[in-house]
């Protein structure tokens, strides 16, 4: 049985390699993205030089924000050396990886970018400054993490921002005879905000035309905002609702996004609940509050510690493609080795460009990042 599957796999690998080589002749396929956001606040305990670059293709520096009065980047004296060190360290690694500045993040809130995107003059101030900063510190690209556009007007403005940003990037590349900067964005797991009161949809045509790819945040589906039941916070499938990566990723494709512009997010952290009854411990089990961790969040390395210290029971759930563990009334939903590798294979089978992690330093000795990278190679 084991031998049979291995030969079968080998055949598929050899066969698909041949198919890919034929395709290369026709047109160069978009290179795989194995991305990860680097939380810059860990730089003293987790310096860029310690990143295992063989597991990634792109590392995003999180985060840099424009000024809320000039809309330009005013890099402080304490941040400048971090940026220089980040790009210099990663360029010197073997293999080197590409670096992007991720702009914004959840803590910036939605208003700053709504203001910037709302007029041609503020868009220009922001765009020109972003390109200047990326070049000054040696980055290969820029990523916008506006969480989240709040209405249809802001989505239209976002489309204009991407269009003018791409034009400016092309002009700069031509003027300086350098490869153009990459341009990406972190976005909601689905193309539209079908769960919210104010319906709005991302500007897919502008994204196809102007971005290299988008990073779909396929996580935070369940969490501290609902303590009534446990949940798979990054379920790939959900038989009972549309709050799943399968639904979200397919909604992007259905809306016309090119599959090679779509990169799936993977969480390197879990979310915890306090069970109502320790004997009822499945996904969706009744809960009465949050479990261990800050606001019910444990990063992956803490989940491993929790499991070990408490001799927790660990279960893989094939229905949702997720992992959970529990001991007594403490319950943790997360992605372990098996669920991560399975999701990566599913993303590859969907024809996506790749995957990314939030966040790089949350892994335990590169365990999950390694399995994800292997699963992509042996995908299908
Ligand atoms: C603008 O930024 C400054 C400095 O970060 C902050 O103190 C201030 O509250 C911000 N103003 C608004 C309107 O967000
Ligand atoms: C980055 O900073 C660290 C110390 O924080 C230093 O050891 C290293 O040499 C620096 N790397 C580069 C490329 O400047
Ligand atoms: C999921 O979305 C589809 C449309 O995309 C809709 O027809 C269906 O009713 C939704 N299912 C649930 C459980 O909300
Ligand atoms: C850990 O749990 C298993 C059952 O899940 C049990 O057999 C074992 O004795 C436990 N070990 C300790 C050290 O509590």
From TrEMBL:
GO molecular function terms noted in the UniProt entry: hydrolase activity, acting on glycosyl bonds
Keyword Hydrolase on entry: yes
Keywords: Glycoprotein, Glycosidase, Hydrolase, Signal
Pfam families: Glyco_hydro_18 (PF00704)
Residue ranges of domain GH18 in the record: 32-379
Family matches, as Gene3D superfamilies: 3.10.50.10, Glycosidases
Range of residues in the leader sequence: 1-19
Family annotation (InterPro entries): Chitinase_II/V-like_cat, Chitinase_insertion_sf, GH, Glyco_hydro18_cat, Glyco_hydro_18_chit_AS, Glycosyl_Hydrlase_18
SMART domains associated with the record: Glyco_18
UniProt name for this protein: GH18 domain-containing protein
Homology family: Belongs to the glycosyl hydrolase 18 family. Chitinase class V subfamily.
Family matches, as PANTHER family: CHITINASE (PTHR11177), NOD FACTOR HYDROLASE PROTEIN 1 (PTHR11177:SF396)
């Amino acid at each position: 049985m084991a031998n049979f599957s291995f030969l079968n796999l080998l055949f598929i690998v050899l066969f698909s390699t041949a198919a890919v080589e034929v395709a290369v002749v026709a047109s160069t396929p978009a290179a795989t993205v194995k991305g990860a956001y680097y939380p810059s606040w860990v730089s003293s305990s987790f310096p860029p030089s310690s990143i295992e670059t063989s597991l990634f293709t792109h590392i995003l520096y999180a985060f840099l924000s424009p000024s809320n009065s000039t809309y330009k980047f005013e890099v402080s004296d304490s941040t400048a050396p971090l940026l220089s060190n980040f790009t210099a360290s990663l360029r010197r690694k073997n293999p080197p990886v590409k670096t992007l500045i991720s702009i914004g993040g959840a803590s910036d809130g939605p208003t700053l970018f709504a203001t910037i995107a709302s007029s041609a003059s503020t868009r220009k101030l922001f765009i020109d400054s972003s390109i200047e900063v990326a070049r000054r510190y040696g980055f290969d690209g820029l990523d916008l993490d506006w969480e989240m556009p709040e209405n249809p007007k802001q989505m239209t403005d976002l489309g204009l921002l991407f269009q003018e940003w791409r034009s400016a990037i092309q002009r700069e590349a031509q003027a300086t005879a350098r490869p153009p900067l990459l341009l990406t964005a972190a976005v909601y797991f689905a193309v539209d905000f079908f769960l919210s009161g104010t319906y709005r949809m991302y500007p897919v045509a502008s994204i196809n035309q102007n971005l290299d790819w988008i990073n779909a945040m396929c996580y935070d589906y369940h969490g501290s905002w609902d303590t009534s039941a446990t949940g798979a916070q990054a379920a790939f499938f959900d038989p009972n609702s549309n709050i799943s990566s399968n639904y979200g990723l397919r909604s992007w494709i259905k809306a016309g996004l090119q599959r090679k512009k779509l990169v799936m997010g993977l969480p390197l952290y879990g979310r915890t609940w306090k069970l109502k009854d320790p004997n009822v411990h499945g996904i969706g089990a009744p809960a009465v509050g949050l479990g261990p961790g800050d606001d019910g969040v444990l990063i992956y390395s803490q989940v491993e510690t929790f499991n070990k210290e408490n001799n927790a029971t660990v279960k893989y759930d094939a229905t949702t493609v997720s992992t959970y563990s529990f001991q007594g009334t403490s319950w943790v939903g997360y992605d372990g080795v098996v669920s991560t590798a399975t999701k990566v294979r599913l993303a590859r089978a969907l024809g996506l460009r790749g995957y990314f992690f939030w966040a790089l330093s949350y892994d335990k000795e590169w365990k999950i990042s390694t399995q994800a990278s292997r699963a992509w190679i042996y995908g299908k």
